[in-house]
Design brief:
45% of the residues lie in helices and 15% in strands. With 175 residues, it is an alpha/beta fold. Strands 3-2-1-4-5-6 form a 6-stranded mixed beta sheet. A hairpin with a 3-residue loop joins β4 and β5. α2 packs across α3. The longest helix is centred in the C-terminal third of the chain and has 17 residues. The radius of gyration is 16 Å and the shape is globular. The chain starts with a helix and ends with a helix.
Length: 175
Amino acid sequence: MRDREYEARKRCGYHLVVLPGLLQTAEYAEEVLKASPTIKPEQVPEGIALRMQRQRILFEGGRNFGFVITESALRRSFGSPALMVAQYERLLHLSTYRTIEIAILPDDVPSPVVPHEFTIFDDSLVHIGTVTKPVTVSETPDVHSYISLYDELLQLSLKEEDAREVIKRLTEADH
């Protein structure tokens, strides 16, 4: 049986193209939102504010977060090199919290193809991001499929200091 800390950390997102909103700087979020074909320019400021407000959950007590991020999502540039360095530095800072695990799925590791992002909540709910609107899954077999997929992606990923090394290399490349 898995221990409670592992179970708590497993609540995650898997993002293919951009970094998870919970980890974004305001400047990175602005560039991502401006690049979205579904967001109107006048919606960008509100989108940034909402994203920044949601990030408070990272620091509330009693919660743990785990993220599997593809290396290609890290390398995808949104904005200037200085903006990307600030984003990488935020990731490095957040990765030092014991309640936040950031794992990097290297590009050269064969892995399942996941056509969308997903976030797992409490082994009973999965939030799936789609192009038009989010979908929520709560049926046990479907939720367990996402948990198994996350476990597989996490096993294939670099964790802790190895993940930080990847981020540090990207930071140095953009300096």
